[in-house]
Amino acid sequence: MEYVATIGMEVHAQILTQTKMFCGCPNELTSAAPNTHTCPVCLGMPGVLPVINRVAVEATVLTGMALNCTIPSFSKFDRKNYHYPDLPKGYQISQYDLPLCTSGHLDVTVEGDARRIGIRRVHLEEDTARLVHQGGVSLVDFNRSGVPLMEIVTEADLHSAEDAYAYLSKLRQILRYLGVSTGNMEDGAMRCEANISVRPEGAEVLGTKVEVKNLNSFRSVRMAIAYEIERQIAVLEQGGRVQQVTMGWDETNHRTLFQRSKEGAEDYRYFPEPDLPPIEVDEEWRAGIRCRLPELPDEKEERFTQSYGIREADAALLTQDLQVANYFEAACAACEGPTSPQTVANWVLGDLYRLLGASGSDIQACPVRPEGLASLLALVESGKINGTTAKDVLNEMFASGRSAEEIVKNKGLAQISDEDTLTEIVLSVLDQNPGPAQQYREGKLQVLGFLVGQVMRQTRGQANAQAVAEIIKTELARQS
Amino acid sequence: MALSREQVQHIAELARLELSEQETELFVEQLSAILDYAEQLNDLDTDAVPPTAQVLALRNVMRSDELQPCLTPDQALANAPQRQDAYFRVRAILE
Which class would CATH give A419-479? Predict the structure, then answer.
């Protein structure tokens, strides 16, 4: 029997603000010693009052706009009540029935097919403290307590692990374009849960939903969903019933594991947060936030193919990362003369990516700035150096941070285009290779490549290969 | 409105409270009485009153994203029943 999987995703993303959601403690987790970023508010002391961080609200609304959401004029916070040591107040301030953003969508491409994923809602809440489990005890660090967190919930519009992967990649790309989150799953700045059900093809009613948590990387999202779909199909095939449970992804053994039963479904007793007046987003505020919406990945990709005339696949690659896209545009702008944007794209996606990959650095820290790349390409265009030399020069620029001109000058790498010099070398090569020279004269034209190669070798790659070919032809014609 | 024993026990469980038989009986009675008292509100005609999540006529009370001084770890941990280094220490949580 054929089965259809139905998947909904919930993504939590930490918002990049200076301070926490409801207090002025720093929102900074990577370098902080435990419990150094706390105050009575984020420690949940009795009698304190939270105050909403405006920047976090605006970042959430901005995200909603980028995800084509409706921004209702009225929104409020609610208390979600449960007991856990990472939650000092006994409740999390979240949003229940009136989130900041509703009913949007995100268009993604899955294996060449365009797909529209519905976005049910985007809401704002506070993160919990971090727990460090140590045998019989847990240690609590409240630095993360109260960090602003947005939750992005899809409709049940995804049907495979590939769908989920494509959605998550696109979502992260947009969060990064907006500058609202780092989107890094590895350090927990972006976290993901999937609700998965399976039903026989043609069945009207959805199958029983299983929630899968602990998806800490893009890889584990893809593997866990594929695994869970297979697991549920196997249960149904054997005539069993899928239980409504929460599963955790076991990263070591690559399988989903039972975490807890959903029976007596969570009873969070949501009620409106009495300490926080509601939020009204009027037309003026909404327009002000909309103004800050940057060019999004799809638009940028389109513009790159249209106005730079580069290949679509290259435009897609360049726009994947905003910093790379900016680098490309800066390099194109710095190019004087005839260097084409496609040439710039080739160099960025080729040799520069290779160097960045090998050194593990990102493009913002690249020692070769866009202007530097442009002046290297200008040396190639003007015939001062050839393409092979340019690769070596780029390596050197990357390693030393020096300019292309300086390296070419100091190392004597300038291309030899001078006809007298080249003719002299050509003549000596022809002398040393009487056989191939004769073959050429007898009409075996492909030996030309071999002869040019010999000249290039003698000049350590610095000869202008085109000029060399011409001179060889002239000389051989003259000698015959 | 009378609460059942099961409802009271469920509430106790959510609040992580362990109730004895006598306490359960006592709270069935007391909590039911509190609900009865609040139930008087049902006698009011609220057809013309729009629902609200808030009793204060405030909107958009927000702060700018500016840093304020934090507590030191020692201040933060001063009332902790148990600490380990600069962490609060609690019993291990089992899912």
Answer: mainly alpha
What is the spatial distance between Cα A153 and Cα A94, in angstroms, rounded to a whole number?
Answer: 14
Query: Side chain identity at B21, as an amino acid letter?
Result: E
Taking the CA atoms of A438, A439, A444 and A449 in sequence, report the sign of the dihedral they define.
Answer: negative
The verdict on B89 touching A (C-beta cutoff 8 Å) is yes
- Say if B5 is an interface residue toward chain A (CB within 8 Å): no
| Domain definitions of chain A by residue range | 3-290, 297-411, 419-479
Distance CA(A381)–CA(A212), nearest Å, equals 55
Identity at A20, one-letter amino acid code: K
| Chain B residue nearest residue A276, CA to CA | B61
Chain B partners within 8 Å of A99 (Cβ): none
Structure tokens, B55 = 């009793």
Interchain CB distance below 8 Å, A139 and B89: yes
- Whole-number pLDDT of residue A220: 92
- CATH code for the part of the protein at B5-43: 1.10.20.60
ipTM of the complex, rounded to two decimals: 0.90
Paired tokens of A46:
């009795």
- Per-residue pLDDT tens digits for B38-55: 999 999 999 998 888 888
The CA distance from B24 to the nearest CA of chain A, in Å, is 20
> Which residue is closest to B16 within chain A, CA to CA?
A83
Q: How many CA atoms lie within 13 Å of A325's alpha carbon, on the beta-carbon side? A: 21
* A427/A76: higher pLDDT: A76
Please indicate whether, in this complex, the C-beta atoms of B53 and A272 are within 8 angstroms of each other.
yes
pTM: 0.85
Q: Does B40 touch chain A (CB under 8 A)?
A: no
Query: What is the C-alpha separation between A75 and A272, in angstroms, rounded?
Result: 11
Number of neighbouring beta carbons within 10 Å of residue A219: 12
Say which range, A110-119, A156-165, A424-433, B83-92, has the weakest mean pLDDT.
A424-433
Q: Long-range CB contacts (< 8 A, 24+ apart) of A271-275?
A: A271/A78, A271/A79, A272/A76, A272/A77, A272/A78, A272/A79, A272/B53, A272/B54, A273/A76, A273/A77, A273/A78, A273/A79, A273/A93, A274/B54, A274/B55, A275/A49, A275/A50
More confident site: A199 or A420: A199
For B84, the 3-state DSSP assignment is: strand
Pairing between strand A210-215 and A245-250?
Answer: parallel
Asked if A57 and B62 come within 8 Å (Cβ–Cβ), the reply is yes
**For a pLDDT cut of 90, what percent of chain B falls above it?**
74
| Of the candidates A407, A394, A385, the residue with the CA atom closest to the CA atom of residue A367 | A394
Hey, is the C-beta of B63 within 8 angstroms of any chain A C-beta? yes
